[in-house]
Structures are given as C-alpha cells and as structure tokens.
C-alpha cells in the first residue's frame, strides 16, 4: 500500500506541476509550426502533364539565432505540383515543436524534379547547385502554446524555365503566407466571347501602391483559366499575402482584355475580393 501511495502522489505532483500548481493559469514553453505546399494552375509549355518535385529539407531561421530543421511528413517528400492547384494543399511538415520567438526565414531544399508529358515521356529537370536550397524571407511569431501554419506557394509559372535547346531547368520561386491570414481574389471570364478556349490571369505586386504598372513592380504569379462548359468561367487567386496591393490582368490570345488594381486596404487578413464587383469580365 505504501508503494502504491508514493506512486499516486508522484503522478499527482507531476500533473499539478504541469497545470501551474493546480490553481494558476497553465504555462506553455513552446509552440508549433506546420507547413503546407500548393501551386496555382500554372502557365506551362504545351504537353506537360505532371511536374514532380522532391523536397528533402525544410528549415526555419530564428531571429538572431540559427537554422532549425523541421521534421517532414516523409523524407524525401515527392509530389506532383499540378495536383495541388485551385486552392488544394498537402502537408509538408506536420506540427513541429518550436521555441517561442520571431522567425525570419524559411528554407526549402529541392533534391530533384521531373516532368511527365501527356504522351507518358519522362523528362529530367536540371536544378543548378545554387538553387538546391531556396531561402525565403518571411517574418512570423511562435508563441508558447500557440500554433502557426504556413502555406508555401511553389510558383511553377516562374520556377520552370525552358532552355533554348528544349530542356528544362528549375529555379524555385516561392511565396509564403500565414495560412489563417491568406487573402483571395476571385473573378469570372466570358472566355468563349473572345473566341478562345482559355485565358491567362497575371498578378503583379503593386510595390508603390500607385494602381498602375511601374518599373519597380514584380510579377507575383500567373495562372491558366480554361473555358468551362458554360461561361462565365470562374477563377480564384488563392494564398495571397494580405495587406498588399496587386494589379490583376486578364490576357486572352496574348492581348490584355481587362486590368484592375486591388488596393491593400481591400485585402485584409482572410479577405475574399471579387473583381469587377462580381460581374463577369
């Protein structure tokens, strides 16, 4: 009986200690970070059916500290990015324990890449040594007891390069957003009315908030909108960083048929902004 009493007393002591002594507020010494990955429906060369990318490292850098390696869902992690469009994601890093504090960068290590054509041909993709690890500046805070999820948009439209010889190179272009805060821009296009089967939507960061394309602006992403069975064809631009200004252009047959500036004040955290007040383009 005495041994039993000591065991129970020890367990109770551990429990009360973990709960702040039983009468106070619980304290937490760490938080968690998880990472998901996605892609827009990219503009790709004709005949590309699948793009497989293999990732072998995910790390974050603490402010004033060092790199912290995160355990991935599986290592290495291979995915067909063309299966992760239209807002779909896959979990690259399940919730990983991190010390509270500010983190300023995320690093993605890309081991290899391969294209599969619509004829089933497998084509290698060259990755330069300097592009095997891509560091992306992005500030986020981890709090004790808190959970953060980041979404990495692996932008194939800008990452995949066709060389003059017809071979492919991968130069990863990443966009990062706090998943819970991501903004979305929506629209619809009467594609058939222009006599084509698809449109291209180009999103540019309006760096000077002027509402016009200027030399300092950079393309954020672009996506293909294939004509639906019945127009207007809807589309969505997912995983946008909120609180930033963008210019959205719609091109059909290589001609810009519509352009609209979206001010940063119209895109707070979690916002869904309809182009043209919800009317078809």
From TrEMBL:
PROSITE patterns: PROKAR_LIPOPROTEIN (PS51257). It comes from the Bacteria. Residues 1-20 form the signal peptide. Keywords: Signal. Residues 30-172 form the DUF4382 domain. This is DUF4382 domain-containing protein.
